[in-house]
Design brief:
Layout (H helix, E strand, L loop, with lengths): L19 H25 L6 H8 L3 H7 L3 H16 L8 H17 L1 H6 L4 H22 L8 H14 L2 H11 L3 H27 L6
Helix pairs in contact: 1-2, 4-7, 5-10
Length: 216
């Protein structure tokens, strides 16, 4: 308490004020940067990617970009997650039914972002960005498939999980589009059917394996 009887708050006691407007503006700026990166990748890939060029496209300063993304790796990692969120595959499906239905929406979304999706495969930087998302998606699929794979030998589980991941990938969408002239809607339905068939066999083998006594 000071001389006039007023108790001062310490910094730890002071109430932190969060401005909804400021938070909204920050989110808008972040989206602006990621959208500009999307356009840049679609136009020219990531071969000639640099922060100043991105800042110019986004209409912000280089300093602003580094405020939101301290390093290029941080930017590319966030970009991978942001892109997956646009497609609908950023978070793990909560059920097998959601997993099976995912290609129908994801592959149609690939059609809408075709230039961007293809550009990501053309440069080491682009493939590195996709790899970040691939690892996250693999972890997601493991979670939702765990209940029907726990009795299978590790090698068999790994092989089947690899097939699931490949079927859900943009590589499968690209192959079906280029080699069989399927649009995302048609290929998505075909892959959903394949996943349903594979998972049914997955469950059958897993249940059979549960009845086999462990060998010593």
């Amino acid at each position: 308490m000071n001389a006039v009887g007023i108790t001062k708050q310490t910094p730890a006691e002071a109430r932190v004020y969060h401005s909804p407007l400021r938070d909204h503006q920050a989110e808008q700026t972040r989206e602006l940067i990621l959208q500009a990166l999307t356009e840049q990748v679609a136009d020219a890939g990531l071969k000639d990617f640099n922060i100043p060029r991105l800042a110019q496209r986004a209409g912000v300063s280089v300093r602003t970009i580094y405020r939101y993304f301290p390093t290029k790796d941080a930017l590319l990692e966030e970009f991978a997650y942001w892109l997956d969120s646009q497609i609908g595959s950023a978070e793990a499906p909560s059920t097998l039914e959601e997993l099976v239905k995912l290609p129908e929406s994801a592959f149609a979304a690939f059609d809408e972002r075709e230039a961007l999706i293809r550009a990501q495969w053309l440069t080491p930087q682009g493939r590195a960005s996709r790899e970040i998302g691939r690892k996250r998606r693999l972890a997601n699929w493991r979670k939702v498939l765990a209940g029907i794979a726990d009795n299978l030998p590790p090698d068999e589980e790994r092989q089947r999980l690899a097939i699931v991941l490949f079927l859900l990938s943009s590589r499968t969408w690209q192959a079906l589009k280029d080699e069989f002239d399927m649009d995302g809607r048609e290929s998505g339905k075909a892959v959903s059917w394949a996943l349903q068939t594979l998972i049914a066999d997955f469950r059958k083998r897993n249940n059979a394996a549960a009845k086999i006594p462990a060998t010593l």
